[in-house]
C-alpha cells in the first residue's frame, strides 16, 4: 500500500505520525490527532510512530496500527513472534501477543497503570504510594510475575490454545489481530512445548472450524477438533487430570481451566492467603455459609479449604453441569462441600428467600467469586449486598469490570482490604486481579 501522510479527515489506510502518550484498557496505546483520540496497536507510551488508520467509523476516536517506529522506547524489543512484527502489514499480524514487542517488566507496569486507572475512574479507589515510597516502585511491583516467567522471558506458558481453520484454504492458525482471518504461523511461542509438538501448523484441515490444543499438567497433550457446523469438539468431554501443587483435579478436556501453567497454583495461593489473613483478623468463619461463585471445577473452594481446614463448609455454584460434577468429585474429601449447578443470580435469588438461620449463616460467610470477563455485574453485586456476607474475595480477569463491581460493593458498605494482581498472560494485555472486601461496621 502506498504511504499517504495526509491528516484530516481520517480515513482507513491513511498513515499518520503520532506521539504515544499513554496506555488504554484492551492492549492499545493512546495518541491524539487533531483533537481526536487514536487507539494505536503495537506502540509503547513515549514513542513517536507512523501508524496506519485501521478503523475510523466513530467520530470520537479512531484506531490505527504502527507501521514504522520513528522514536523507539528503550523498552521496545524484537517481537517474540516473528509473524507479529511491525515490519509486517498490520492485516497480516496474528493476534494474541499484543504486548510481545515490549520488555516484560514494562508490560507489567502498563498492566498496573491500567488497573490503577480503572480503579480510579470506575471504582472510586485511588491507589497511592505509602510515605517514603515511590509510586513508580508501586507500579513496578503491583502485578506479580508467575514462577519461571522472567527466566523464560514470558514464553512457553499456555496450556490451552485455540487455532482456527480458514474455510477456503484449510490453513490452520490463529486469527489476525482485530479480524477473523486465519494467519499461518511457524510456531506458538506462548504455548508450552507439548502444545508446540502437536500443533498442526503446517497441515490443511478443510472441513474443520477450530482446533483446540490442550496440555494438562498430569495427562497427555491432545487436539480437540470441531467440524464446520458442529457446536462441540471431539474429545471435549474426555476427563483430564490437572495437578495444583500436590492436589489433583479432574476437568473436561474442553472445559474451563486457567491457561497459564502456573495460574491455578497462583490463584489457589492468592485465595488461600486471603482466607488465612481474614481468619487471623477473626473475620473468617469456616462453619458459615461460604460460597465459591462461578466455581468451575472447584479450584477456589479447594483453596478456601487449604486455608480453613477440612472442616470448611462451602457451596460452589457453577452453570455448567459437567463442571459441577467434576467439582463434586474434586472436593469429595471436604465433607462440608456441596457443588450446585445454577446460574449465580438465580442461586442468590433463592438464598435471599431462605430461612432466617440460613441467611444468618450466609451473613457470617465469605464469598469467593470468579466471574467471566464481563464481571459479576450490577444485579449480582446488589444481591450480594443484600445477602451481606462478612467477606468477598473477588477474582477478576477484567480490571474495568472489577472496578465497576468494586464501586457497587463500596457503595453498599464494603471496604477493600487488599488488591493484588498477577501476570498470568505475559505478552498480552490480560492479567488477573484479586480484591478482598469486608463488610464495614
Ligand atoms: C473464570 S471461570 C472460573 C472458574 C473457576 N473459579 C476456576 O478458577 O477454575 C468462570 C466460570 O463461571 C461459569 N459461569 C459463567 N457464567 C455463569 C453464571 N451466570 N452462573 C454460574 N456460573 C457461570 C463458567 O462456566 C466458568 O466455569
UniProtKB/TrEMBL annotation:
Print the keywords alphabetically.
Methyltransferase, S-adenosyl-L-methionine, Transferase
Listed Pfam families: TRAM, tRNA_U5-meth_tr
Give one GO molecular function term. Answer: rRNA (uridine-C5-)-methyltransferase activity
Name the residues annotated as catalytic in the UniProt entry.
397 (nucleophile)
Q: Name one GO biological process term.
A: rRNA base methylation
Q: Which PROSITE patterns match?
A: SAM_MT_RNA_M5U (PS51687), TRAM (PS50926), TRMA_2 (PS01231)
Ranges for domain TRAM come to: 9-68
Residues at which S-adenosyl-L-methionine binds = 258, 294, 318, 370
The domain of life for this entry's organism is: Bacteria
Which family is it part of?
A: Belongs to the class I-like SAM-binding methyltransferase superfamily. RNA M5U methyltransferase family.
Q: What is this protein called?
A: Class I SAM-dependent RNA methyltransferase
Organism classification = Bacteria, Bacillati, Actinomycetota, Actinomycetes, Micrococcales
Amino acid at each position: 500500500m502506498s504511504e499517504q501522510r495526509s491528516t484530516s479527515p481520517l480515513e482507513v489506510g491513511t498513515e499518520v505520525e503520532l506521539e504515544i502518550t499513554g496506555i488504554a484498557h484492551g492492549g492499545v496505546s493512546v495518541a491524539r490527532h487533531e483533537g481526536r483520540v487514536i487507539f494505536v496497536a503495537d506502540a509503547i507510551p513515549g514513542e513517536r510512530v507512523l501508524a496506519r488508520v485501521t478503523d475510523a467509523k466513530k467520530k470520537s476516536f479512531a484506531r490505527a496500527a504502527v507501521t514504522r517506529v520513528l522514536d523507539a522506547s528503550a523498552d521496545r524489543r524484537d517481537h517474540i513472534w516473528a509473524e507479529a512484527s511491525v515490519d509486517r502489514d498490520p492485516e497480516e499480524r496474528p493476534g494474541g501477543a499484543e504486548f510481545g514487542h515490549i520488555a516484560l517488566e514494562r508490560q507489567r507496569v502498563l498492566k498496573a497503570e491500567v488497573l490503577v486507572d480503572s480503579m480510579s475512574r470506575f471504582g472510586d479507589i485511588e491507589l497511592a504510594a505509602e510515605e517514603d515510597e515511590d509510586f513508580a516502585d508501586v507500579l513496578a511491583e503491583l502485578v506479580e510475575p508467575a514462577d519461571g516467567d522472567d527466566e523464560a522471558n514470558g514464553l512457553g506458558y499456555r496450556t490451552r490454545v485455540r487455532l482456527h481453520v480458514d474455510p477456503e484454504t484449510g490453513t490452520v492458525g490463529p486469527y489476525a489481530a482485530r479480524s477473523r482471518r486465519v494467519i499461518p504461523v511457524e510456531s506458538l511461542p506462548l504455548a508450552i512445548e507439548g502444545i508446540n509438538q502437536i500443533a498442526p501448523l503446517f497441515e490443511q484441515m478443510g472441513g474443520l472450524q477450530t482446533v483446540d490444543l490442550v496440555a494438562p499438567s498430569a495427562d497427555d497433550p491432545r487436539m480437540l477438533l470441531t467440524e464446520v457446523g458442529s457446536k462441540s469438539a471431539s474429545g471435549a468431554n474426555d476427563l483430564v487430570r490437572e495437578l495444583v501443587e500436590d492436589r489433583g483435579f479432574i476437568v473436561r478436556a474442553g472445559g474451563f481451566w486457567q491457561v497459564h501453567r502456573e495460574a491455578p497454583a497462583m490463584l489457589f495461593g492468592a485465595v488461600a492467603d486471603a482466607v488465612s489473613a481474614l481468619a487471623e483478623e477473626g473475620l473468617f468463619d469456616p462453619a458459615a455459609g461460604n460460597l465459591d461463585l462461578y466455581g468451575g471445577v472447584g479450584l477456589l473452594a479447594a483453596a478456601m479449604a487449604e486455608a480453613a481446614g477440612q472442616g470448611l463448609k462451602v457451596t460452589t455454584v457453577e452453570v455448567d453441569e459437567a463442571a459441577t460434577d467434576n467439582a463434586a468429585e474434586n472436593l469429595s474429601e471436604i465433607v462440608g462441600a456441596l457443588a450446585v449447578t445454577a446460574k449465580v443470580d438465580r442461586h442468590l435469588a433463592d438464598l435471599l428467600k431462605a430461612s432466617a438461620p440460613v441467611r444468618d449463616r450466609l451473613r457470617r460467610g465469605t464469598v469467593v467469586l470468579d466471574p467471566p470477563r464481563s464481571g459479576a455485574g450490577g444485579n449480582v453485586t446488589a444481591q450480594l449486598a443484600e445477602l451481606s456476607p462478612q467477606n468477598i474475595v473477588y477474582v477478576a480477569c477484567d480490571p474495568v469490570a472489577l472496578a465497576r463491581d468494586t464501586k457497587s460493593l463500596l457503595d453498599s458498605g464494603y471496604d477493600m482490604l487488599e488488591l493484588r494482581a498477577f501476570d498470568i498472560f505475559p505478552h498480552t494485555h490480560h492479567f488477573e486481579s484479586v480484591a478482598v472486601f469486608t463488610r464495614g461496621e
